């Protein structure tokens, strides 16, 4: 259960509707009318029902902090001792949040695994007491709720514990996590939120009374399937098979880089095979250990970083962007439109051809329709969201635009043409943002009459899935322009890093040397599949060859050439001609059906493109065995990435290491278990990394020259990017 | 703004508006004029309240209103079709008024669930009822206020000077509803029509799977939210803190009052209808006063297990049709009719179809009163459509809340609640039944009949409708 709580921290079990949950897992609480100085948990007695209210006064969400646990135990004991109370209702006073999970700062504050183990045991004790209580307890859940303490059937429990996914309320009911659903109410004699909580409490109290006087039965008839399942599960052989299968699945998905899921399986196994006492012990100990692993630190760091990057440090912009115009209905333009229309922003999508526009509008429609199919929105909501989208071929209505984002072809001349056309029609306050992945913003702004209104907004493909937005400011960009761009990004649900201007900004610049190294590896005879396996094995969610296909070989070639020119030989390695030849032959990646792999619609199986063999043969390089083992290859790729990231910080492109980590993980898929390039340097050791780079430098030259900041950190081991 | 300007003019004096009317009536034969003058003095003697007639606006009157008995669906009407019911109502109106079959200028009917064979049910019914085939007819739909829309469309036609006599009505037939083949099956069947060769046909037939055969049923659910109306009513009742007991009490009141009205012969709008192949029907059959204990036993019908809306405190599925004759006052008088009432100001409102689906009366009432220059206490007769007891109670609470008026309606203060001793005294949709498309005309006719019977001057009808819409109309008694 602690496992669930740990997972719950990062990805909470979110119940969007409101639930009354009664069950054997939450049973009883006792209270006496003395509430005195309690700040987090209070209760009042209504009839013979104690209504226990949870409310963390210091936070927007309730978390299982030390204080909360302490007061909960106190309140519980009072409820128990009071003979006038026959049942209890557990409810949060915060609209939309029951208990969001364990207090992450509390876990971070612990110095040793033993401390965490102790905390976990105290939590377990509390939950166990609740579970065994003689007085029925009804938990009235309203909003997000952790899975802790929920007793569920084994198979579904496995699934939930391992993935920590968000479950909708109706699904939770089906899974029997909750017993009864209460629908949110609309306006009445009080505000909807207030009345809904009140109503939830009323229903829960009736429910508690019903259980206490045996009008409502808690025993549920097991279905035939459940009976069969129980019977089958009674054989140790079957159980072992299940453990094995689950473990196999976990290993396949996590490559063994994340220790928590395996430990969870271990805990469940111990609990089932050796009884609850051993299970609880194993759980608390494992939880203690896990909490203090480097993976835990990395993920907690990312959590904090993500929270920080969801704030606008540039303040509130002077005007809100209500009308957004997007130029170019390509993959990016349509993607940006999709994440804007569903936030209620009136969006103009402009293209130059009817075909391009139709494709773009269809992409937006499909994105929303897929949500309808998954039932996350109704077809009616889809239609009303789409009414915010205006597709057109001319500049009509641009006089009302508050911001224009251009997503036209990556060519400085086209960008200049576009900026001049747009500036002739937009109002003076309108911001011009460029969604470029590599062209310096100041070069684009050179054609502008009002460079203070020009900014870069680098989205990642696919826009509706990738969380990151990289905002690029030039020396001339005004603070209000930046604030406005960040505000728009936040509205679109993005995690935002704001970086300085320069070729490739931050993300593209880090990716380029790694891609160059990847091309060299291909030339050295590493198969694309092997390249993918090595990178995913290191923790990248997508293999490098696949990533290149996704980004587009033409884009990669373009970027490699541009940045190669800008940064010189440091960006060398692989031969750009390899990519260019591929582009010439039409192997532009997934979009053209062929790249490193061959893509066939309708099938997920893909083979290596046989035709690239000839190209690679032509540019063949001989590998140096001393730096070509699997592990060395991984470090060759990663060290160039990391070195470039550190250099961005050194040059002031990056504002701080935190944004660097967030950008790398959320935009480029840098292994989350490592927490980002800067945290990686901290945990791996700058000196060790420099040593490795020196070794590669000896073979390949300045591609691997460590930057000054990295050298500084290597020299002084007390220097860390993250304190 | 307009209403602010209008009010002083309207309240300036009774005599000026009457003067205008006299001016207009100069073409009326002398005998009629005498009657009018007589009526005028009579009304001045008996009524202290002003009339709502205003200069430059035509007086439009409800001459007569009838309806078929409202029956639980699946009972005596089970084998009919919607236009049969509508025809019965039209024939009843013809019989009751004796109006020549070619003296009507236009016919409008309201309906909700359409029989696809008779989608313009107004025309089919009019032809069948023996009206001249030279009279155009159209059908309107606006959920539970469809026949209100039919009536106000008639008012519009007359006010615009396009017509002088219009028949408005409504019909709903829930004993048979269009149940469709699934979309997949329909697609296959339509393709079959186009298939040219036997091979094509066979391959299409071969593509039919079990899933194709599951039918599509019409649901009383919002298209925009997919929520059934009963579910929304339950949430609405909860939002306003309406208890189960309050709802059951109100439902019991409705049935008790309806029974009393039926027994005392007050429901004079009901006509007898010889159902083909069956007996003559002359009474509503859904009126069943029960006891609070009996009603308390029922389980919630929509929100389970903690909901409060049950079968007993909701209106039931009903078959029925209604019809009214609406005319300009001049024409009615010219034809020798004694109108029942004036149809005065009306409003339509709409709001959030999810959380305020059934709050139409709350929004419409203050608006229409304002427009007519009246206050709640001026109204003598209230006829509100009772979709659910919980919905009525929620509306009453909303109308009595300053907070709600200020927060959601942008008004300075609440409009107040109707006095219960004036409210739905002859039963309502909960007890008499609610054929969706036909209820509006029943409300208007009932107000007219009650004004006459009880001697009041102003009546108010109000109703909610699917889609989060609502309607209210002020009806003024015709001088006795």
Automatic annotation (TrEMBL), chain A:
Q: Which residues form the active site?
A: 470
Positions of the site: Important for hydroxyacyl-coenzyme A dehydrogenase activity? Answer: 458
UniProt-recorded Gene Ontology molecular function terms: enoyl-CoA hydratase activity; long-chain (3S)-3-hydroxyacyl-CoA dehydrogenase (NAD+) activity; NAD+ binding
EC numbers on record: 4.2.1.17
Give the record's pathway. Answer: Lipid metabolism; fatty acid beta-oxidation
Key word Lipid metabolism present: yes
Q: Would you name any one GO CC term?
A: mitochondrial fatty acid beta-oxidation multienzyme complex
Instruction: Identify the residue position(s) of the site Important for long-chain enoyl-CoA hydratase activity.
Output: 151
The 3-hydroxyacyl-CoA dehydrogenase C-terminal domain sits at 504-599
Give the UniProt keywords, A-Z: Fatty acid metabolism, Lipid metabolism, Lyase, Multifunctional enzyme, NAD, Oxidoreductase
Q: Where does the chain cross the membrane?
A: none
Carries keyword Lipid metabolism?
yes
Give the matching PROSITE patterns.
3HCDH
Q: Where is the 3-hydroxyacyl-CoA dehydrogenase NAD binding domain?
A: 324-501
Q: Identify the domain of life.
A: Eukaryota
Name the chemical reaction catalysed here.
(3S)-hydroxyhexadecanoyl-CoA = (2E)-hexadecenoyl-CoA + H2O; (3S)-hydroxyhexadecanoyl-CoA + NAD(+) = 3-oxohexadecanoyl-CoA + NADH + H(+); (3S)-hydroxydecanoyl-CoA + NAD(+) = 3-oxodecanoyl-CoA + NADH + H(+)
One Gene Ontology term from the biological process aspect of the record: fatty acid beta-oxidation
Q: Which family does it belong to?
A: In the N-terminal section; belongs to the enoyl-CoA hydratase/isomerase family. In the central section; belongs to the 3-hydroxyacyl-CoA dehydrogenase family.
Q: What is this protein called?
A: enoyl-CoA hydratase
Species name: Astatotilapia calliptera
UniProtKB/TrEMBL annotation, chain B:
Going by the entry's taxonomy, the superkingdom of the source organism is recorded as Eukaryota
Could you name the Gene Ontology cellular component terms for this entry? endoplasmic reticulum; mitochondrial fatty acid beta-oxidation multienzyme complex; mitochondrial inner membrane; mitochondrial outer membrane
Q: What does this protein do?
A: Mitochondrial trifunctional enzyme catalyzes the last three of the four reactions of the mitochondrial beta-oxidation pathway. The mitochondrial beta-oxidation pathway is the major energy-producing process in tissues and is performed through four consecutive reactions breaking down fatty acids into acetyl-CoA. Among the enzymes involved in this pathway, the trifunctional enzyme exhibits specificity for long-chain fatty acids.
The pathway entry for this protein reads as: Lipid metabolism; fatty acid beta-oxidation
Query: Which GO MF term does the entry hold, naming one?
Result: acetyl-CoA C-acyltransferase activity
Could you identify this protein by its name?
Trifunctional enzyme subunit beta, mitochondrial
| Pfam families attached to this UniProt entry | Thiolase_C, Thiolase_N
What organism does the UniProt record list as the source?
Astatotilapia calliptera (Eastern happy)
| Xref: NCBIfam families | AcCoA-C-Actrans
* Reactions catalysed: an acyl-CoA + acetyl-CoA = a 3-oxoacyl-CoA + CoA; decanoyl-CoA + acetyl-CoA = 3-oxododecanoyl-CoA + CoA; dodecanoyl-CoA + acetyl-CoA = 3-oxotetradecanoyl-CoA + CoA; octanoyl-CoA + acetyl-CoA = 3-oxodecanoyl-CoA + CoA
Q: Which gene specifies this protein's sequence?
A: HADHB
Domain Thiolase N-terminal: from-to ranges: 60-330
């Amino acid at each position: 259960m602690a496992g669930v709580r740990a997972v719950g921290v990062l990805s909470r079990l979110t119940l969007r509707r409101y639930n009354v949950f009664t069950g054997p897992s939450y049973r009883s609480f006792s209270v006496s009318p003395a509430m005195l100085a309690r700040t987090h948990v209070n209760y009042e007695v209504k009839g013979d029902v104690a209504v226990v209210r949870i409310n963390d006064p210091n936070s927007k969400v309730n978390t299982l902090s030390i204080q909360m646990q302490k007061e909960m135990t106190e309140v519980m004991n009072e409820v128990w001792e009071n003979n006038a109370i026959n049942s209890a209702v557990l409810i949060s006073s915060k609209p939309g949040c029951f208990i969001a999970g364990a207090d992450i700062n509390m876990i971070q504050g612990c110095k040793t695994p033993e401390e965490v183990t102790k905390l976990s045991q105290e939590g377990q004790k509390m939950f166990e007491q609740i579970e065994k209580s003689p007085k029925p307890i009804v938990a009235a859940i309203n909003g997000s709720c952790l899975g802790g303490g929920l007793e569920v059937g084994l198979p579904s429990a496995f699934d939930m514990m391992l993935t920590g996914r968000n479950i909708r309320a109706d699904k939770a009911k089906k899974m029997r996590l909750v017993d009864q659903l209460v629908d949110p109410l609309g306006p009445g004699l009080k505000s909807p939120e207030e009345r809904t909580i009140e109503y939830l409490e009323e229903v829960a109290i009736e429910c508690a009374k019903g259980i206490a006087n045996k009008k409502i039965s808690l025993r549920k008839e097991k279905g035939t399937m459940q009976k069969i399942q129980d019977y089958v599960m009674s054989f140790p052989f079957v159980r072992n098979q299940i453990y094995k299968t689950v473990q196999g699945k976990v290993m396949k998905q996590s490559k063994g880089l994340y220790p928590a899921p395996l430990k969870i399986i271990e805990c469940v196994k111990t609990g089932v095979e050796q009884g609850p006492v051993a299970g609880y012990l194993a759980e608390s100990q494992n939880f203690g250990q896990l909490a203090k692993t480097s993976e835990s630190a990395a993920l907690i760091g990312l959590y904090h970083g993500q929270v920080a990057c969801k704030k606008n440090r540039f303040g509130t912009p002077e005007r809100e962007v209500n009308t957004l115009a997007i130029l170019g209905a390509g993959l990016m333009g349509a993607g940006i439109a999709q994440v804007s229309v569903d936030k209620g922003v009136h969006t103009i999508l402009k293209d130059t051809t009817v075909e391009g526009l139709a494709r773009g509008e269809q992409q937006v429609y499909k994105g929303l329709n897929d949500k309808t199919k998954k039932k996350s929105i109704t077809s009616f909501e889809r239609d009303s969201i789409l009414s915010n989208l205006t597709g057109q071929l001319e500049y009509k209505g641009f006089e009302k635009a508050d911001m224009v984002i251009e997503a036209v072809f990556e060519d400085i001349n086209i960008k200049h043409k576009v900026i001049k056309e747009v500036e002739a029609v937009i109002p003076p306050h309108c911001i011009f943002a460029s969604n470029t992945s590599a062209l310096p913003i100041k070069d684009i702004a050179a054609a502008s009459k009002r460079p203070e209104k020009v900014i870069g907004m680098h989205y990642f493909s696919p826009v509706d899935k990738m969380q990151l937005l990289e905002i690029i400011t030039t020396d001339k960009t005004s603070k209000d322009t930046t604030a406005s761009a960040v505000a728009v990004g936040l509205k679109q649900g993005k995690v935002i890093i704001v970086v300085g201007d320069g070729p490739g900004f931050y993300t593209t610049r880090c990716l380029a040397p790694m891609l160059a190294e990847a091309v060299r590896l291909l030339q050295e005879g590493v198969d694309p599949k092997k390249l993918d396996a090595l990178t995913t094995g290191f923790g990248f969610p997508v293999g490098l060859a696949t990533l290149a296909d996704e980004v587009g070989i033409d884009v990669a070639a373009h970027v490699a050439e541009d940045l190669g020119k800008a940064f010189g030989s440091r960006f060398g390695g692989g031969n750009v001609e390899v990519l260019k030849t591929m582009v010439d032959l039409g192997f532009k990646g997934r979009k053209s059906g062929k790249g490193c792999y061959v893509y066939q619609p309708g099938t997920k199986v893909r083979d290596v493109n046989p035709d690239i063999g000839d190209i690679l043969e032509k540019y063949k390089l001989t590998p140096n065995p001393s730096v070509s083992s699997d592990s060395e290859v991984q470090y060759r790729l990663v060290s160039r990435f990391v070195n470039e990231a550190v250099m961005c910080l050194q040059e002031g492109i990056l504002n701080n290491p935190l944004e660097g980590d967030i950008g790398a993980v959320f935009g480029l898929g840098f292994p989350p278990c490592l927490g980002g390039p800067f945290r990686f340097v901290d945990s791996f050791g700058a000196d060790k990394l420099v040593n490795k780079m020196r070794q590669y430098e000896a073979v390949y030259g300045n591609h691997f020259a460590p930057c000054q900041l990295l050298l500084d950190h290597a020299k002084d081991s007390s220097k860390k990017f993250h304190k | 703004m307009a209403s602010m300007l209008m009010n002083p003019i309207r309240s300036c004096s009774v005599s000026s508006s009457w003067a205008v009317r006299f001016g207009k009536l100069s073409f009326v034969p002398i005998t009629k004029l005498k009657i009018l003058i007589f009526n005028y003095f009579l009304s001045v003697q008996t009524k202290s309240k002003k009339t709502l007639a205003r200069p430059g606006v035509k007086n439009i009157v409800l001459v007569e209103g009838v309806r078929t008995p409202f029956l639980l669906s699946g009972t005596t009407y089970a084998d009919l079709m919607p236009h049969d019911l509508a025809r019965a109502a039209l024939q009843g109106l013809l019989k009751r008024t004796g109006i020549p079959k070619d003296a009507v200028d236009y016919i409008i009917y309201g309906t909700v669930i359409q029989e696809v064979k008779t989608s313009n049910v107004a025309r089919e019914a009019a032809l069948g009822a023996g009206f001249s085939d030279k009279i155009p007819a159209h059908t309107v739909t606006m959920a539970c206020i469809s026949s209100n829309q039919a009536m106000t469309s008639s008012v519009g036609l007359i006010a615009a000077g396009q017509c002088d006599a219009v028949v408005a009505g409504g019909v709903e037939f829930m004993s048979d509803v269009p149940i469709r083949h699934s979309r997949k099956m329909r697609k296959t069947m339509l393709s079959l029509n186009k298939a040219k060769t036997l091979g094509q046909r066979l391959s299409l037939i071969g593509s039919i799977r079990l899933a194709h055969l599951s039918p599509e049923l019409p649901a009383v659910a919002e298209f925009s939210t997919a929520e059934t109306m009963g579910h929304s009513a339950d949430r609405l009742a909860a939002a306003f803190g309406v208890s189960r007991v309050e709802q059951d009490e109100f439902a019991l009141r409705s049935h008790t009052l309806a029974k009393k009205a039926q027994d005392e012969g007050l429901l004079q709008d009901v006509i007898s209808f010889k159902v083909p192949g069956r007996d003559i029907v002359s009474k509503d059959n859904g009126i069943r006063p029960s006891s609070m204990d009996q009603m308390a036993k029922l389980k919630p019908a929509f929100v389970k297990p903690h909901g409060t809306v049950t079968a007993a405190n909701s209106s039931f599925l009903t078959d029925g049709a209604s019809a009214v004759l609406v005319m300009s006052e001049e024409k009615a008088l010219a034809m020798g009719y004694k109108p029942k009432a004036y149809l005065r100001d009306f409003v339509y409102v709409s709001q959030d179809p999810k959380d305020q689906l059934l709050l139409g009366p709350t929004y419409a009432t203050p608006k229409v009163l304002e427009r007519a220059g009246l206050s709640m206490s001026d109204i003598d007769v209230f006829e509100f459509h009772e979709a659910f007891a919980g919905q009525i109670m929620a509306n009453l609470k909303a109308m009595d809340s300053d907070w709600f008026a200020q927060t959601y309606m942008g008004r300075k203060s609440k409009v107040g609640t109707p006095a219960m001793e004036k409210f739905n005294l002859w039963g309502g949709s909960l007890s008499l039944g609610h054929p969706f498309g036909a209820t509006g005309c029943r409300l208007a006719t009932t107000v007219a009949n009650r004004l006459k019977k009880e001697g009041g001057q102003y009546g108010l009808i109000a109703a909610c409708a699917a889609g989060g819409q609502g309607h209210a109309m002020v009806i003024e008694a015709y001088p006795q």
